[in-house]
Amino acid sequence: MTNEKVEWRIQVEDGPWKRAGISCSMWSFISSLYSKLCKFVKKAWEIGVNDPRKFIHCLKVGIALTAVSLFYYLKPLYDGVGRNAMWAVMTVIVVFEYTAGATIYKSVNRIFGTTLAGLLAFGVHWVASKAGDQWEPVIVGASLFLLASATTFSRFIPTIKARFDYGALIFILTFSLVSVSGYRVDELFNLAQQRISTIIIGTSLCIIVSTAVLPVWAGLELHVLVTGNLDKLANSLQGCAAQYFEAQAASESNKNLMGYKCALNSKATEESLANLARWEPAHGRFNFRHPWKQYLKIGATMRSCASCIDALIGCINSENKTSDDIMKIMSRTSIKVGDNSANVLRELASTIKKMKKSNKLDILVIEMNNAALELQNLLKSYPNTQKNAKDGDAKLEIPIIELIQVVTVVSLLSEIVARVEDIVKCVEELSDLAKFKPEMSKCDKTKQHSTDNKISPDQQNDEETVIKTLQMV
Amino acid sequence: MTNEKVEWRIQVEDGPWKRAGISCSMWSFISSLYSKLCKFVKKAWEIGVNDPRKFIHCLKVGIALTAVSLFYYLKPLYDGVGRNAMWAVMTVIVVFEYTAGATIYKSVNRIFGTTLAGLLAFGVHWVASKAGDQWEPVIVGASLFLLASATTFSRFIPTIKARFDYGALIFILTFSLVSVSGYRVDELFNLAQQRISTIIIGTSLCIIVSTAVLPVWAGLELHVLVTGNLDKLANSLQGCAAQYFEAQAASESNKNLMGYKCALNSKATEESLANLARWEPAHGRFNFRHPWKQYLKIGATMRSCASCIDALIGCINSENKTSDDIMKIMSRTSIKVGDNSANVLRELASTIKKMKKSNKLDILVIEMNNAALELQNLLKSYPNTQKNAKDGDAKLEIPIIELIQVVTVVSLLSEIVARVEDIVKCVEELSDLAKFKPEMSKCDKTKQHSTDNKISPDQQNDEETVIKTLQMV
């Protein structure tokens, strides 16, 4: 049956279609377009399925927009704000962002930018109107030119760019609209008042929807991103050492091995999230002034560790192979260094996740350093090992070429251990700044089981969703 | 005289100010505020002085804005477009960006987003008006909800995010404004037409000012950024090898040494510039479809090389010091590897700068590989060197601890050489994609001196300005 169908289609393609050349190419064009479209839709659908919060965000935008449109549809509300209701709709579209932090940042900037510019434009207009008809356009024009240039310049200044970029844009926008329209419209005060009130309506609606309905907190995203990257770094490090010394199948653990690249590439994301997180109110276990900037420092030390792992992986894949004898001698301790530093990284991740000072961390760091020292000593004592071998059997000197790779791996592992210590320092600074409480030991825990500082099931759910999502991406 | 003055001030501070405690603290508050303000202004001024194009950009914004305000001030123009002139002003403020590419991207997105949304809203409005009074708000509301959600979702799709993010925003904005206001205003067609014409006026003005008056091309910025990073990488690499083996004063060349960090950190900038550059028309020596994406690949290989340099610098600063004897043996060849790979990187930078296929590159790559091979051989032959030494004088075996660092440095240098070759491949791909012409040898040059494909003095000036600026930053 299937065969018949296929044959039928082929016959048709060979028959009538070939005769009508244009229709044929048209047909193939449409079918290729269709298959492209299908692929595109499938890809888009996968984006949403991998992170359902993106679907939810779209629904939230729809809800906010439909809600604000009510100002137009409902007669009494319309009479209140009149034609300016348009500004509420506009505000919702422009201000509503994916994370709550971004929405609040834009809302606050929009309100203050509009108000400040409105007042200033009003002042300029007043001065201009006193100056007489001849000077009025000159004063208005000159002030517009000067203020627009100055504000545009202020957007190049890093601190302003990070916090008030949108506000500066809105400032120029409002100032020019008010001062320009002020030249024609005499009911300036009324206009400004109505516009500000519609903007406040729009922004409040946005802030309410984005913080109350399944909010996406920039702070939480940053928190999960950084802890996730710590875990990925740990996996890479452990996998790296194990793969080299145990000659594991590379393909199997390749995905784990490449995790460090996430840490290397997330600088821009971390910075934008940290910038937005500072606008967010206290949420979950984070206070209003949670030290988000410290996450950036942790990110920087992680990247420096990740570049070392990158170099290590490069050296492992290089051509100089090490003799099996030395590998055997070094193997156990090297894997131990890899495991121990991975343990430290995982403990750091769990410290940040739990927001409790770890009581195992010190021991783990000592273990890691001891393992690194042991590895160095093993390498130092290598001539002795060699000598013993010489006494025992006929082996003379191992050519240095067979040492190159193992020495490099050991040396890079020591460097990685040193850089992991930098991460430890940064995380400890974070735990001081954010006033993490000390973790209770197990016996304490049973005593104080259900009293102190517990994560509510809801909060835990939220965080688990974020974590799952980021793992899928 | 100075002494007296100081004393007088101290007396005053001790005297009347202390009695009035509030004034005193107020005074110190104001003075600290004043000094902060001074610092801020100084910093801002320096930003502008380091890159005068930022000052120029502000003036350009001022000019464009004042020009578009003429629609309000001049009576005949005002009568043409009416109250909708506001949209021209708004367009200029929102669309005018620092680089020409960004301005064109936003302009095109704004025009197409507005037109498409306007047509669609018009269609929906027509359907709704045919459906009767009862169904009209339902149809308008539902279409608004659906389209807003779908368009918001499309902004999560990477390809759309990179090219049409702003267009999608404008699409939602216009669709809701038109469909919502359509419910009240009956002169919808006129409104849409006027609005689109004002937007076209605004965007054309922006595009003209940003491409004609001292334009800042995103493509040129990217080009200069990538070639600059190649040079910085070369300096770092050369400095690194030289500092280690010649024990140069670290502080002196520290700035040069840290240049590789620029390459490590410019991923986000490169990506945004490449995204914007594709909107730019042919300018200078770049065609409309110049392969900007290839610059991103070059950037990625540069970062991988920079990671290795980062690890190398870490190892150089580690505690294991190498004995002077080995250093002496390895020194010359290692520095040669550093110099040769730096030469390759510089030749790559000059290839991209001149946009001519280099005729020295192959030789330089061979020289670099030979030097790397020589270094490896030197290390391999080390036992022999050692034996000779043993025969000559009393030295027995050099403990392996003294070898660790030098072996690591050599091994990382080989890895860096391998990664430099990746950069070479990427640059060669670029030269194929962008159809670089082969460079003329010197004798050819004298023949064809003033005929073919010369850079005009103007173009050269432009590029020199960009290069100088980026060097200062």
UniProtKB/TrEMBL annotation, chains A, B:
Task: Note the superkingdom of the native organism.
Answer: Eukaryota
InterPro entries in alphabetical order: ALMT
**Keywords noted in UniProt:** Ion channel, Ion transport, Membrane, Transmembrane, Transmembrane helix, Transport
Short name of one Pfam family = ALMT
Supply one GO BP term.
monoatomic ion transmembrane transport
Q: Where is this region: Disordered?
A: 442-462
Instruction: Please give, as recorded in its UniProt entry, the membrane topology of this protein.
Output: Multi-pass membrane protein
TM regions (residue ranges): 58-74, 86-104, 111-128, 134-154, 166-184, 196-220
Record protein name field: Aluminum activated malate transporter family protein
As recorded in Swiss-Prot or TrEMBL, the protein's gene is named: 25484552
